[in-house]
Amino acid sequence: MNTSQGMLAYSSIGPSDSLEKIVLLHGFTQAKELWHSTASLLANDLAGRAPHIISVDLPGHGGSSAQEVNLWQAAQQIVELCGEATYIGYSLGARIALHCALQSPNSVKRLVLCGATPGLRSNEEREARRVADENIAQNIEQTPLAEFLNTWTRQAIFDGYVPDETDISIRLKNNPSGLAQSLRKMGTGTQEDLWNRLSELSMPVLLVTGDDDHKFSNIAVEMKALIGPAAQHAHIPQCGHSVPFQKPAEFCSVVSQFILLR
């Protein structure tokens, strides 16, 4: 679908006129197809509500166009496409979902953030990260994508999750230039410090982290305190950063309960 910022590809399951709409936003180097199991599990868990579940290819990923859009612009076009819904994001998708909630709070019925950060707190940290992100972007442009993904997916942060052939085949359909542009415009180094804006979130918020992902678990604890009573934090045992893909059934269970109760 064409939006004001560019073309976004998406897939969906469930009745389009459902009152329970759910939007799934993937992580960096991923694509909408990786949400297939999650969407099916959520549809089953929430069968009584017959949800309409939309999986979106983020800018520069999958079938979406490679665009020079920042996180706010990406959030704007995703809300333009999906409208009022429960927004669920993982990693890069979680950072975009947070921007959706802050920019268009009336469109975000509930917010689920998995492996999210509100940004780096100092200019020095952001500048160092921008330099690191630029180096990675150049590596993506200069290295065969399969070779880059082999290195990327074996980072310590992803310990506990080994992508299978289907996962890798989906990632290999991405355009390297789109991934590089995405990192330059939407990487953590370019993200504003949003810590002092978390108190603006009034919709129900679920923060999900794996118990083995100590960095993002600690971030979630801080986020919950700053958001206040609207937020809750779910811990997934024996799981790292890649919660929706390492432990899909457990992830969908806590998300479904959150939707049913909030």
UniProtKB/TrEMBL annotation:
GO terms for molecular function: 2-succinyl-6-hydroxy-2,4-cyclohexadiene-1-carboxylate synthase activity. InterPro entries: AB_hydrolase_1, AB_hydrolase_fold, SHCHC_synthase_MenH. One of its GO terms (biological process) is menaquinone biosynthetic process. Transmembrane segments: none annotated. Residues 22-248 form the AB hydrolase-1 domain. Pfam families: Abhydrolase_1. Gene3D superfamilies: alpha/beta hydrolase. The keyword Lyase applies. Keywords: Lyase, Menaquinone biosynthesis. This is Unannotated protein. It comes from freshwater metagenome.
